[in-house]
Each structure stands twice: as C-alpha cells, then as structure tokens.
Amino acid sequence: MRLVLLGPPGAGKGTQAKKLQQKFNLTHISTGDIFRANIKNKTELGQEVEKYTSAGKLVPDALTIAMLWDRLDQEKEKNFLLDGFPRTIAQADALKEGLAQRNCPLDAVLSIEVDEAVLVERLAGRRTCPQCGASYHVQDAPPKHEGICDTCGSELVQRPDDTRETVQNRIDVYRRQTEPLVAYYEKEGILFHINGNQSVDAVFDAIQAALNL
C-alpha cells in the first residue's frame, strides 16, 4: 500500500499517519521529520531548511525532492505513507514520474480537511519536547505537569512555526500552493476527502472506510 496524506498544518496528518503505520505496517515518511532532524543536528542542509520553516515558508522543491528520493530508495518493500509531500504541483509531477520509474504508483491520496479557525487553535496551543519529540497541546492534550514532558522530563517549547502569526502564514501558503493538489489527484482518480473536524478515532474510521479496510 502506497499512500499520501494531504491537509493544512494542524489537520492531524501526523497523528493519523502513526495510526496507519501501526495498523498496516507502513513506513511513515515525513518530510517535516527529515527537516527537523537536520535542523536539530545543525547540518548544512538543516541550516538552509530552517531559513524557510522558521518563517512558515515552503522549502524549495529541489531540496525537498532530493531528500525524499534518498529516503524512499531505502525502502525495499515499497509500502509507505508520505506525510508532508508532495506540497506543490511540481513535487507531485516529480513523485509520479519517480514512482512510475520504480514501478510502484500511488494507491490513494487522503485529503484531511479542517476549518481554518480550528487549525489556528490547534497549532497555537501545540507544545513539543526538544529532546524526545513528544507532542502536547495546552488544552486538548496537556502534560501531567505544566511545561514538562511526561516522557523525559525536559522543558516543553513552542516551535517557532507554531506562533499565531506564523500559523496563519503557513495556512495561507498551504491554500495558495498546496491545496491545488486536491484537484490534481481528483483527476488521477485516487483522492478521498476526509472530514478532519472530527475526533482522532472518527477521522481514522473515515480513512479506513475510504480505503475499504
């Protein structure tokens, strides 16, 4: 099974990706995770990527595509779930061509759709652990002790791209540059619309129903 998750920042793609990964033994490939690992390790690429992500802008296609193929070509089974890629029509074209060359086309694209006001509240309240990567929300999923990670005891932080101003910019960028992919994959006949305003479990049930799983 080869899937793509589409949706604006805060739509819950990461959460649903983990549930799909665990239940169907898929390799979860998140460009966001790849970017953050490079930023944390202060690699040359990470420093370049951070210039864009800290401002809520998309990383240039050439950088993203090169990183994506390096990661995908490590997967011998070719059962994967892409989260955060593609984000532009150019990336979608590159993905389609590359997968065709590898004889492993996509099976489905899931578009998780959430009201804008909900997205802003979700992201502005998000807190993450810089050490172990655990994620929390000040209202929906707070830690046991305010500001402290339940897992490793580190102090939680708000990512620079989760401030309200940057969040709004990220959503605007998505609407302008990534939302056209919905029409792109509708033409391909592999797109499924998922109501992301529901609970996590209800969204997952909708995904399974769409995929007939």
Give the tally of β-strands. Answer: 7
Query: What would you report as the Rg, rounded to the nearest angstrom?
Result: 17 Å
Shape: globular
Strand order in the largest sheet: 2-3-1-4-7
Q: Helix and strand string, N-terminal first?
A: EHEHHHEHEHEEHHEH
Helix fraction, binned, reads 40-55%
The number of helical runs is 9
Descriptive overview:
This protein is an alpha/beta fold. The chain is 47% helix and 14% strand. It contains nine helices and seven strands. A five-stranded parallel sheet has the order 2-3-1-4-7, sandwiched between helices. It has a two-stranded antiparallel sheet with strand order 5-6. The chain is globular and about 50 Å long. The mean pLDDT is 88.
Indicate the topology.
Elements: E1 2-6, H1 13-24, E2 27-30, H2 31-40, H3 44-53, H4 61-72, E3 80-83, H5 89-101, E4 108-113, H6 116-124, E5 126-128, E6 135-137, H7 164-178, H8 180-188, E7 191-195, H9 200-210
Helix pairs in contact: 2-3, 4-5, 6-7
